Amino acid sequence: MTSVAEVQALLRFLSQDAKVPVPVAMSKVKDLKEASLTTPETLSKAPLPAIQSIFPDEKMAKQILAAAKRTSRKRTSSSVSTTSPRSKRTKHALPAPGTQLSPSELETSLALPFPETKASGIEAEIKETVLYTNRAPLVVAFVVSLLKYTMPSQPLSSRLSLAQAVMSMGAKSKALNLGIQSGHAAEEEGWGEGQPKIKIMGREVRVMRRWGYDWQKAYSPEAVKQGTGTDDVQAQYPPTDEPTEIESQETIKGDPSSSPPPPTSSHQQTATDVEPPLWALNLETLRSTSNTSTLLSSASGTNLPIYDPHSARNYLYKSFASAPSSLGKTQAPSPVPKANHKKEAEEKEQNLAVLLHALDIVFGSWIHAIGPEELDRRAWGWYVRVRPEVEDGPRGWGGKGEVRLGNVLDLRR
Q: When comparing pLDDT for 303 and 228, which is higher?
């Protein structure tokens, strides 16, 4: 299996060095992997017709080949001139708080996995897959996938931020209801007042509009069909190289099993009413780091803490283990030996890919029949039907259980 780091490196090369639009690059990853053309080095040695069989546009194919040769020469020169460990890049490193990334760089860095299995066998794999996880990351996965259909103008960075907010707010509500935490939620005390809000799966989320975040203009139906995640990129916004600042925030990772407020008409969009990209505001962090004057001026929308999409993405990647074949009701999996950590990480990545693909199948089967508003209304009930079973009360807080993806697939129309 090609690792996440390798896929991200390939996407960075295509989008930044070869100047291939991100959605086109993402749609071709699977074909490039099958042709064993996943690095600048392998691409630089490939004949032009081989590249053109994947990228039919002759100009783009030549552009990729030239960039691959240029990049390969630079790497060869660098390896000869220095062996300093400083030249090594850390894998899976998150951008530091305040890191400046262009919109295309940010969206590329957040790419989610897609199944390695061929399309003809993916449903069989979904039905056979049983995950071992707790409820919180399943909420994040549900929301990230749901928003692709109910708020299609939102880029992946926004969907991850909003999904983390829904999960964290649910966790806070549950902790207060169980007596694990005391006091009130920040939104109940008025934090974020004046900022716009939307409802997702019945949960009200305060947001900040990301004016000027022009993240992509291209859209690839082919990539959507292949399930490569390119449907994260829509035609609403043209690209720009202006950087955007990402502020890392801590989130509450708990068990959001309490039912959200009754859903109402919320964020669904029409052709004439499209929200710009959004950040979900982290009101708990705002309260813990601010004073009364901040509360009164929060409507300005400046310097407000957000739910960081990289944190949400990392949370997804580490949360979906495979259920042991002979797992008892109260038995937890044994600790994984250090030597097997890489294998475990790859397995979790593939599990996440299969889960997201299953959710895509479900939401995609309903969206045209019932529309985005009704799809959003039903999504919480669907989540409740497939979430892992845990003990009631405080003893079940953060508890893990099995999630059978066959049951998720049964939710489709």
A: 303
